[in-house]
């Protein structure tokens, strides 16, 4: 073993594999809950419109329901501004415990708010307040969860372990979609409208309590502990985040742009696109999408592991090029109205989205140094989500109506990918390396392997 390697091992933080697993599980649980909420609201939006915004026009009720849904995206940056810097000051695990309980309580409350017919205007007011709390709390969730996983992960496995965060995203979305669909099939239309739609929201309560239990058992991340032990405390003020490190903010916003446009186009907008634009049966489109997401769950960890070996930038650049080249053919295949072409088109889009999702959780936190990592990431992530992710379905729908071109989603994905290549090329490669401002992180098994090689 050479002198440099010996020095690295002396300065490395050694993590126990069981602690890493607990950290990954608890962090991914919160992300699953966030997307479970996103899914159940999306699939019950029409019913929520009737319950809280009764109108002679179904379209008006639905628009009001989606308007309340959009409010959560408006306040997400505020949550990022509040929870992010707070996590850099008091600790990642404390803030993550707060965000998951706020998310689950708000979702649970939607399930118990009386209808407009029962309490009048207070019903939509209660719904709006619950959605505002949801949006505010999710503003601190993803940035904190990704930061926590990455700071706990050995440097050589950060991509693989980070990919479990998006595994939770897909799992939460599928659970919500299947649950709402199953309840609607079992119950009559009147039963579902009267009380059945509330069941998924009520389930969020115990799910949140389980996630809180997991998070309360966690230790603080090694990088945060190291930062607090430093004699010279670094500035983590808003000025440090937004002005001194403005370049890092811009890079993160550019990367999140393609991640969110891809996610919200494929997971949120595509169900409506298949049924409303391409006139594919709703039940068939749901089956196609659920199978696509299940396939994505099967390969997402492989993508994260691949990035540990070949580097994040190679995977991301290749994926963006894939979006530019393959988005139009994928939507052309969807438009052919056959089972085979629909499956191939969805497979292409799913492959491209999962290639992004499997790498981004390990890439984005590593843009920022430890003392502003949670704050910088949470703020830039949620600004980009509010501007580009949450608006993607609305913008695409408007452009299709304006142009009459059903391939607008493909053009939108191609443009986002072309823009994202620039920040991807600028950021440093961090696979297998310590994150900025953090010590080397290794697992016990990795150290034992190094010791064995040294003795040999």
Describe what is shown at a glance.
The protein contains 22 helices and two strands.
Your description of this structure?
Residues 1-10 have low confidence and may be disordered. The protein has one domain (15-222, 236-432): Growth Hormone, Chain: A (Up-down Bundle), CATH 1.20.1250. It has helices at residues 3-11, 17-43, 45-52, 58-90, 92-110, 116-119, 122-138, 141-152, 158-186, 189-196, 198-216, 222-229, 238-244, 246-277, 282-310, 312-334, 339-357, 360-363, 373-389, 392-403, 408-426, 444-455, and strands at 13-15, 441-443. The longest helix has 33 residues, at 58-90. With 456 residues, it is an all-alpha fold. It has 22 helices and two strands.
| CATH topology (level 3) name | Growth Hormone, Chain: A
Total number of domains? 1
Mean pLDDT: 86
Query: Which descriptor suits the 3D outline?
Result: globular
Low-confidence blocks of residues: 1-10
Q: What strand line-up does the widest sheet have?
A: 1-2
Largest sheet: 2 strands, parallel
Cα distance, first to last residue?
Answer: 10 Å
Secondary-structure element pattern, one letter each = HEHHHHHHHHHHHHHHHHHHHHEH
Number of helices: 22
Share in helix? over 70%
Strand content: under 5%
Quaternary organisation: single chain
Spell out the CATH superfamily. MFS general substrate transporter like domains
- CATH architecture heading: Up-down Bundle
